[in-house]
Design brief:
It is globular, with a radius of gyration of 18 Å. It has helices spanning 63-79, 87-97, 99-105, 108-130, 134-137, 158-163, and strands at 10-27, 32-45, 50-55. Strands 1-2-3 form a 3-stranded antiparallel sheet. The protein is of the alpha+beta class.
Amino acid sequence: MTSLSIPSSISRVEVYLFRAPLDVPFRTSFAVMFSRAVVLLRLEDADGCYGWGETWSTFPPCGPEHRYNLLETIIAPLLLGQSFGSPKQGYDMLTQRTQVIRLQADEPGPLDQTISCADIALWDLAARRAGVPLRSILGSAGNATVKTYASGVNHPGIAETFAR
C-alpha cells in the first residue's frame, strides 16, 4: 500500500488567477462571458514536494477574484505549517475550521469550492510524494485515459471552434 501522508509541513501556499479575454463572447445559462478565468493553488511542503489544485470560478464575473481572495485570506493561513496523515485529514480540517465563516458569510458554495481546490492540491502533493500517478491513487491504475467534461460551450459557432 502506498503511503498517502504529507508528513512534511506545508511551507508555501501560492494562489494564481489567470484571465484570458475571449475574441468572441459567449452566452452560458448564467450570463454572457467576456473572458475565461482559472484560479490555481500550489502547495509546497518543507521537503520541496508540491501539488496543484484548481477551483471552479466561472460565475459571477467577479467569481475568480472572490475565490482567489478566499484562498489567500482563509484557506492559505489554515494550511501553512500543517502536516497531514492523509489528504482527507486536510480536507476535514479545512471543513471543520471554516464552519463559523460558512455560517457568518452564508457562502457555502464558494468556501466549498476553495476547500475542494486545496483538497485537489493535497491529493496531488501526496501522489507526488509517493512517486505514483494521482490516477492510480484514485482508482484508475489500469486505465490510462481520463474522461473529460466541458461546459460553457454552447455559443454560436461551437463546431468551428472545436474544429480548429
